[in-house]
């Protein structure tokens, strides 16, 4: 099979993934968050930016560290506790699970010696030596 045929099959698989409910939810809630949760998103980004500045300027020894952590926690909670973000993250995990399974299956189909990540993203210990 030539490279172009493999790419065409990959596009077919991508189209199948895009037709799943999880992908449709991912797109819907991603758009929803960009439009309807703009205030919460901007507050979170602002708090995260301030936190990163404090981290770069002294971390836990910075005089504003405690206040910055509290502000970041409040902004993150306000954003992440919305139903839209919860559903978006669930859809994202579902899509990632599909891609992980596909990657693992494809690697095993090619060869049992191909290293593929397990459920937690680590590579299984197998010998890469093909002696014998």
From TrEMBL:
Superkingdom assignment: Bacteria
InterPro entries xrefs: Bact_com_dev_regulator, Com_YlbF, YheA/YmcA-like_dom_sf
Name the UniProt record assigns to this protein: YlbF family regulator
Organism: Paracholeplasma vituli
